[in-house]
Amino acid sequence: MRGFPRLQNTKTRFQRRAAPYGLDRALLMLLALTSLWADIAWNLTQEYRHAETSARTDASNLVRSIEAIDQQLLLLRKLYLRDRAHFDLSTIARSGYLLPDLTLQVTIIDRLGLMRLSNLGPITGPVDLSDREHIHVHMNGDAR
Questions:
Q1: CA of 23: how far to CAs of 20, 33, 37, 143, in Å?
Q2: Which residue of 11, 25, 43, 116 sits 20 to 30 Å from the alpha carbon of 100, by its own alpha carbon?
């Protein structure tokens, strides 16, 4: 190609000019991807910390709620043992001893599994709960 030196020069000149731009574009893409993944990693870390904090808060709220329910039950037991004959759960519920947000229903069941008292109102007929597992456990003395 002796007769076309200008085309040979043009080609090498083009290759010299294009090579740095290709490297620049590749480096720019690498920088963009690196910053994108760094942002994703940072956001995931923040979300993990937020979830961890929320879990701790929920756990402490749950413990406080369980302790409050336990205190209510201990108080009711003490009142019941003090005067079984005149113990009235409905009156106690209306008087504010039971926290309405935590306690839905409190029931006293005898040894045979029959419901005797409830904070929801008077018991009009026999209600047999002896077939329920959570009652059966207490009737057999397996509860601890």
A1: 5, 15, 21, 74
A2: 116
CB-based contact 118:89 (threshold 8 Å): yes
Domain boundary among 54, 83, 112: 83
Give the separation between CA 14 and CA 11, rounded to whole angstroms.
Answer: 5
Co-location of 74 and 22 in the same domain? yes
- Decide the pairing of beta strands 107-109 and 115-118: antiparallel
If asked whether residues 8 and 64 sit together in one domain, one would say yes
Residue linked to tokens 């009009």: 124
Same structural domain for residues 78 and 93? no
Return the pLDDT at 134.
87
Choose the final residue of a domain: 67, 83, 99.
Answer: 83
